[in-house]
Amino acid sequence: MSKKVSTSSKMIQILDENGELHGEIPKELNNEQIKKIYETMILTRAFDQTALALQREGRMLTYASTFGQEAQVAAAFALEKDDWFVPSFREHGVFFARGYPISQYMLYWVGDGRGMQIPKDINCTPISVPVSTQILHGVGIAWAMKLQKKKNVVEIFFGDGATSKGDFHEGLNWAGVFKVPCVFICQNNQWAISVPRSKQTASETIAQKANAYGFEGVQVDGNDVFALYKVVKDAIDKARSDKGPTLIEMFTYRLSDHTTADDAKKYRDEKEVEVWKKKDPIDRLKKFLLKKKLLTEDENKKIWEQAQATVDAAVKEEESMSPMKSEDIFTNMYAEIPENLKEQIEEAKRVSP
Amino acid sequence: MSVLNLAQAINQALMQEMEKDESVIVLGEDVGTDGGVFRVTEGLWKKFGGERVIDTPLAESAICGVSIGLAINGMKPVGEIQFDGFSLPCIDQLYSHAARMRNRTRGRLTVPMVLRIPYSGGTRALEHHSESPETLFVHIPGLKVVVPSTPYNAKGLLISSIRDPDPVIFMEPKRVYHAIKEEVPNESYELQIGKARIIQEGTDVTVITWGAMLKVVREAVEQLSEKYSVEIVDMQTLSPMDEETFIKSVQKTGRAVVVQEAPKTCGVAAEIVSRVNEKILTSLEAPVQRVTGWDTTMPLPKLEEYYLPNPNRIGKAIETVMNF
Ligand SMILES: Cc1ncc(C[n+]2csc(CCOP(=O)(O)OP(=O)(O)O)c2C)c(N)n1
Ligand SMILES: [Mg+2]
């Protein structure tokens, strides 16, 4: 049986950079939820700015900023309670939208392994640093859902660079063959460290790659929370009703350096960054909210203050936690500690600093 | 002579080999316009252009597998894997193809490629950026595995690796990229692959190590310099292994400690101990000791110091063999 799948060649947008609507706000989003998305985006940016500052003071490891990509929050809002997300390493906003404790999330970025001891009520995998590898885990988690006749779905996040690896092909192909209930969300932020999207693939879009796997691909303005929410929600509904996966290309931009260890000025034109700053996802939603009188400048200021206070409290909590015990590196290697490791624990006690 | 750090010495080796031989090309993630995340390929793209210094798509299996093809067909690819933890997709290409192409085709096709991999911990890096996977490569017959430890041997060994007719895995101790400076000859020179070197002579005990651990071993030995006369062997190449040098040394001292950063079980240290046992067991005054990483996942930075061999642990092992 052969079937045609469509991949729209037009990027979907509802809210433009001036805060004007070009379509309908998804019906699932009421004013309260829109505000909640807005607040979570601001929380994400406050976290980001704080993390960058802490990093400069040596209080954080190398840190991957999410500046400019905060609309990702909207993708998380389309999930139901027991759904899963499978992150890469630039999904801070998704973690926060799903209720991951900020102080614990911070632990990971200061190099403390307890940061990824995922709270029991959150369904996600840990941050995946090896690019693209997590795509396959997401497919497996979603496939398990189908095999167990559960109705939950999985959002799988990765970058534009990740689409070059074999894992991307293998994961999408598998999901197509078995009609796995997942949504592939490519955060195309135009850069993979110093390599621009145009050098990553000769495809015109990333979304069109879905064609080859037999399912739908959609390119969406990734700085537009309404459009992003809509395409993700549609894809989730489709996956939940066993109609297979979707690839969503979230067209956005990395406004920051790749990480704090990188200097983007070496390889990219500042003018490009300036152009994208005008498309900021937070500014854009703010303009809309002000125009619709759903927000006042005064309220806005309070939201920012509240976000900063929340982040500051989280930092304080993280930094006042008792350190991990050195023996903890041996625990959780296996369900039961084998003899040779028991010996090494004893040896470590004798010889380590 | 110029005083260079290890990253600069490697950069100079690449420059000189590219100047000398047009078939040498450099490929990898961010090696071009960015000059490499450790600045190792800085200036190459400007000098040789995008056709010989290539920013590749993000695909380690391809960097390795395509290099195999390039090498088969007359090029001399020097591929870069950005960090140790991302070298693992290359194992399939190396194990199944690069390492056995000469053997399978009875010498008709050969794979004169180099794969450069920054490795080692101790840099407070993110997860998967601090691994020491040398054992995995050493265990593949047909590969050469070279691990420099200072600017001088890094330059000479890389030049030899590029000129070598077989695939070479070149593991660079990232922890000391910018931390060790040394006089390095300005001109091009080769150092023999498969040859260890004696860093300092001694008569009481031999400490055998390689790569990033050499600096740590030196610190440990320095602290005991009043007490013991320690001979330090820097392996430089892990495959093929220069057995003669360390066997001779241990025969002389009668005592040995092997220091590796990788996890203990089945590490290269175990191979060295086996060879000592096979060849000169009866010359030993004490059982050979190993100081290694633990058999655990490489911990995140908060606990990495607890994982890594340090001068204290090495000193204690030296005391153990001296006081047996
Ligand atoms: C397999 C692998 N290779 C290399 C790296 C080093 N690295 C970290 S992020 C990155 C670029 C990733 O680009 P992209 O997928 O677009 O994600 P972004 O960083 O833009 O969010 C690279 C090369 C890695 N983490 N994993
Ligand atoms: Mg990217």
Helical amount among residues of chain A, as a percent range? Answer: 40-55%
**The CATH homologous superfamily of the largest domain in chain A:** Thiamin diphosphate (ThDP)-binding fold, Pyr/PP domains
Our count of helices of chain B gives 12
Strand order, largest beta sheet of chain B:
3-2-4-5-7-6-12
Overall pLDDT level of chain B: 98
User: Helical proportion of chain B?
Assistant: 25-40%
Number of strands of chain B: 14
List of distinct ligands in this structure: thiamine diphosphate, magnesium ion
Structural class of chain B: alpha/beta
Low-confidence stretches of chain A: none
* Order of strands, widest sheet of chain A: 1-2-3-7-6
CATH topology of the largest domain in chain B: Rossmann fold
Q: Which chain pair shows the most residues in contact?
A: A-B, 45 and 42 residues
Cα-to-Cα separation, first versus last residue of chain B: 45 Å
Question: Structural class given helices, strands, pairing of chain A?
Answer: alpha/beta
Give the topology string of chain A: H per helix, E per strand: HHEHHHEHEEEHHEHEHHHH
Number of domains of chain A: 2
Query: Tell me, what is the CATH class of the largest domain in chain A?
Result: Alpha Beta
SSE layout and pairing:
The complex is a heterodimer of chains A (353) and B (324).
Chain A (H helix, E strand, L loop, with lengths): L30 H26 L15 H6 L6 E3 L5 H6 L4 H8 L24 H14 L6 E6 L6 H13 L3 E7 L2 E2 L2 E2 H4 L8 H5 L2 E6 L3 H16 L5 E6 L18 H8 L3 H11 L5 H23 L19 H13 L2
Parallel strand pairs in A: 1-2, 2-3, 3-7, 6-7
Antiparallel strand pairs in A: 4-5
Chain B lengths: L1 E4 H15 L3 E5 L15 H5 L4 E3 L4 H13 L3 E5 L9 H7 L4 H4 L9 E6 L14 H5 L5 E3 L4 H13 L4 E6 L7 E4 L12 E4 L4 E5 L3 H11 L6 E5 L2 E3 L3 H11 L2 E8 L4 H13 L8 E5 L10 H4 L3 H12 L2
Parallel strand pairs in B: 2-3, 2-4, 4-5, 5-7, 6-7, 10-11, 10-13, 13-14
Antiparallel strand pairs in B: 1-8, 6-12, 9-11
Helix pairs in contact in B: 1-7, 3-4, 8-12, 9-10
The structure holds thiamine diphosphate and magnesium ion (MG).
Thiamine diphosphate sits at the interface of chains A and B.
